[in-house]
Design a protein that fits this description.
With 452 residues, the chain is α+β, with helices and mostly antiparallel strands. It has helices spanning 13-21, 82-97, 102-129, 133-147, 150-163, 178-190, 194-214, 218-223, 253-264, 270-282, 286-290, 323-330, 355-362, 374-386, 391-397, 405-410, 416-435, 443-451, and strands at 2-8, 27-33, 42-47, 53-61, 64-72, 297-298, 303-306, 317-320. The protein has a five-stranded mixed β-sheet with strand order 1-2-3-4-5, covered by helices on one side. It has a three-stranded antiparallel β-sheet with strand order 6-7-8. The protein is rod-shaped.
Length: 452
């Protein structure tokens, strides 16, 4: 097929019509509009053998001829009229006159569109994967339940249930900012719970830190979810109480005597009374005793056997029972097939959230300085020391996480014999506290005795 080239001052509609009329399959006619100046480019119309007409923009880059197709001529939709083609030519001419290669720019624009499309698809993918605040809380609580103590898990769970719905739980976790955190803490402080606000701040901080690392975990693949959290929104939120005091309250022998006898004569439920007594006698954590199960009691060996999932350090813990502690458990009514101390709903164990208030009410008729349930555990630690029990055995009785290399990696001895002996010493010491006439004096008399 031969090409016949022609140059004319101006391509008009009549020009196209005349060439289209004489088109044939053996010839291509190329009509070039004469250039209007250097750097303007050239407008070209090519009449194909089938009568179709294509428009081109011809130009030179580094003395090398190049051309860019403008489009195909037609009066139908999605194709160009001659006038429209010349408008597009002028646009390309302006680009070329600015020193830009129109064809290269087109490729760049196409790449830009592709890049933007890829970015949009990625945004869409992220939105489909992106977890909400509700999901982050759910996954974090599962993590706590599997890896932390039951007491901590329940504390966090209860706090989240109560105060997290202050925010819209469907909000993407990555969209939560420090103002949202402040909103939650403000609501808690408005109730006068300053310490609880500090606790909630710590819980939220740990949750968002978990969310940051979650995206690179196997769990993210398993759950087909990511959070895309770039930074922890809690870090820039100040604590409500900057210098929160660590608990250091421990009851004296006098206070233990008064507290014990006040329990016996109180209107408190027998279940709660027994929980408080067992905390004092075993030095166990409040949650461990309140959630005690019948299958964790070995009546023959007289031990409490806590499984790893019920202890703070995730290690099994054997607590030998002395006479006083065993008598309490032995005489406890079996109101539930699983729990020694069931809640009123008869479904779950006794809740601990009302324990502090119960003690406060109990102490209303005494002059004992205020304390909270966990102070009973500290009292055990202090008074067993006074009874002559070594710190190492006291730590083992309370299942403290021993950090020395030997204890961490090598020592698998359960120290049950030594712990039994220690609990017997504590039993005798505690009986002296309860039986010693001195401790039956009115509290005011005891104070005067101390002062004299």
């Amino acid at each position: 097929m031969k090409t016949i080239k022609t140059s004319i001052p101006d391509i008009k509609q009549t020009t196209l019509d005349s060439y289209k009329a004489k088109s044939n399959p053996e010839t291509i006619y190329q009509i070039k509009e004469q250039s209007r100046g250097r750097g303007q480019g050239v407008f070209i119309a090519r009449i194909l053998g089938n009568g179709e007409i294509d428009f081109y923009f011809k130009y030179f880059i580094n003395e090398k001829e190049k051309s860019k197709k403008i489009g195909r001529y037609s009066n139908s939709k999605n194709q160009l009229t001659l006038a429209q083609a010349k408008v597009e030519f002028r646009k390309l001419s302006a680009i070329y006159n600015a020193g830009i290669d129109p064809k290269a720019q087109e490729l760049e624009n196409i790449q830009k569109i592709i890049t933007e499309k890829v970015a949009q698809n990625e945004i869409l993918r992220i939105k489909q994967l992106q977890g909400s605040l509700s999901q982050l809380a759910e996954f974090y609580l599962i993590h706590l339940k599997e890896n932390k103590g039951q007491s901590h898990f329940r504390n966090v769970q209860n706090s989240f249930l109560k105060d997290l719905p202050i925010l819209n739980l469907n909000t993407k976790a990555s969209d939560i900012n420090k103002d949202d955190i402040v909103l939650i803490l403000h609501a808690i402080t408005e109730r006068g719970s300053l310490v609880m606000a500090n606790r909630m701040r710590a819980y939220l901080s740990a949750m968002f830190q978990y969310g940051i690392f979650f995206d690179n975990s196997v769990e993210a693949v398993k759950r087909q979810t990511k959070f895309f959290i770039q930074s922890n929104p809690v870090l820039n939120v100040q604590k409500i109480i900057k210098n929160e005091k660590r608990g250091d309250r421990s009851l004296s022998e006098d206070e233990v005597n008064i507290f014990w006898n006040s329990l016996v004569n109180s209107k408190m439920t027998l279940l709660r009374i027994n929980v408080f007594k067992l905390i004092l006698l075993t030095g166990s954590r409040v949650e461990e005793i309140a959630s005690l199960r019948w299958d964790e009691i070995d009546f023959k060996e007289r031990t409490i056997n806590l499984p790893p999932e019920r202890t703070k350090n995730k290690r099994p813990h054997i607590i030998p029972l002395n006479e006083l502690a065993f008598e309490i458990i032995e005489k406890s009514p079996k109101l539930h097939n699983i729990y020694l101390f069931p809640a009123q709903n008869n479904i779950e164990p006794l809740k601990t959230d009302g324990f502090s208030q119960a003690i406060t009410r109990l102490l209303g008729n005494t002059k004992i300085e205020k304390f909270v349930p966990r102070d009973l555990r500290r009292t055990f630690k202090t008074l067993t020391g006074k009874a002559g029990i070594s710190k190492e055995i006291r730590d083992r009785l309370q299942n403290h996480a021993l950090q020395d290399v030997s204890s961490l990696h090598y020592d698998r001895y359960d120290y049950l014999k030594e712990k039994r002996a220690a609990m017997d010493i504590w039993n005798d010491y505690f009986n002296d506290i309860l039986k010693n006439p001195r401790y039956h004096l009115p509290y005011s008399t005891i104070n005067n005795t101390h002062q004299s």
